[in-house]
């Protein structure tokens, strides 16, 4: 009986974390336009390191453990806005052009076969 309850608890915890992640992504509009996504990313870069430091200090106070100071994250000179959705845009444009290209290529192939048979 206990293993089933433990298994159910693990499933519920994992489902809650996954649901929270999906809600956070939707709420912060991470899958929206790239300028909003970049703004959220910059906000996270400003907020997360101090929050991690505060949490580590809290854990140190509560447990008496010494947690070493983490190094600062590296700074990248890469604008995610420029390439955020470029891969998706290229794939979708290729998929939207695929039927017309397939028709064009099959017509060219058929014309080539007609010339070779004559």
From TrEMBL:
What's in the keyword line of the UniProt record?
A: Membrane, Mitochondrion, Mitochondrion inner membrane, Transmembrane, Transmembrane helix
Spell out the GO cellular component terms annotated for this protein, sorted alphabetically and separated by semicolons. MICOS complex; mitochondrial crista junction; nucleoplasm
The processes (GO biological process) annotated in the record are: cristae formation
Q: Does the keyword Isomerase apply?
A: no
User: What Pfam family is a match, any one?
Assistant: QIL1
- Give the range the annotation lists for the signal sequence: none
Q: How does it sit in the membrane?
A: Single-pass membrane protein
Instruction: Report the main location listed first in the record.
Output: mitochondrion
Phosphoprotein: is it a keyword of this entry?
no
Q: How does it assemble?
A: Component of the mitochondrial contact site and cristae organizing system (MICOS) complex.
Q: What does this protein do?
A: Component of the MICOS complex, a large protein complex of the mitochondrial inner membrane that plays crucial roles in the maintenance of crista junctions, inner membrane architecture, and formation of contact sites to the outer membrane.
What name has this protein been given in UniProt?
A: MICOS complex subunit MIC13
Record the organism.
Panthera tigris altaica (Siberian tiger)
């Amino acid at each position: 009986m206990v293993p089933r309850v433990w298994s159910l608890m693990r499933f519920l915890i994992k489902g809650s974390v996954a649901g929270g992640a999906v809600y956070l992504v939707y709420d912060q509009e991470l899958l929206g336009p790239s300028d909003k996504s970049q703004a959220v990313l910059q906000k996270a870069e400003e907020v997360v390191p101090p929050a991690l430091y505060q949490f580590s200090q809290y854990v140190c106070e509560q447990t008496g453990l010494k947690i070493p100071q983490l190094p600062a994250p590296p700074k990248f000179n890469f604008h995610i806005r420029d390439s955020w959705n470029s891969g998706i845009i290229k794939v979708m444009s290729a998929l939207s052009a695929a039927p017309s290209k397939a028709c064009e290529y099959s017509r060219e192939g058929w014309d080539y076969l007609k010339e070779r048979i004559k």
